[in-house]
Amino acid sequence: MEDKINTLEDLKEPAAHAFHVVEPSKNRKGMATVRIPVNSYAELSYYLIDALKVSVAALDAEHEDVTAVRNVSSAVGGVLEKLIEIIPLEEMVLLDKVRELVSDAAQEKQPT
After folding, report:
1. What's the rounded Cα separation, in Å, for the pair 26 and 32?
2. Residues of the chain with pLDDT under 50
3. Among positive and negative, which fits the CA dihedral 1, 94, 39, 80?
4. Which residue among 5, 30, 36, 52 is buried most deeply as judged by most CB within 10 Å?
5. Backbone torsions φ then ψ of 63, nearest 5 degrees
6. What pLDDT shows up at residue 26?
7. pLDDT score recorded for residue 1
8. Which burial class, exposed, middle or buried, applies to 75 when counting CB atoms under 10 A from its CB (0-12, 13-18, 19+)?
9. Three-state DSSP class for 21?
């Protein structure tokens, strides 16, 4: 397969491997969902607890006593790890190809 995209038809195959992170909602028109990959309900619970802990720590940050939330750095780390997991890398590769296609088309239209 050639990496160069010249037509909309050329986008179909890379698009088939992308656009899996943000999915259109089946129940709400115009809305989409993002899945957070987890191995179990327990892991999801730990992630939600970490997100809540980070929020509590942020609210308490103006006070000197942030010790009400134990393991703040661990909670922050857990939340950041999940955010990294939902970055749509496959989509970014496709967007680079679309940008290249648009850029090439714009250059072709410029008078020389």
Report:
1. 8
2. 1
3. positive
4. 5
5. -95, 155
6. 86
7. 44
8. buried
9. coil
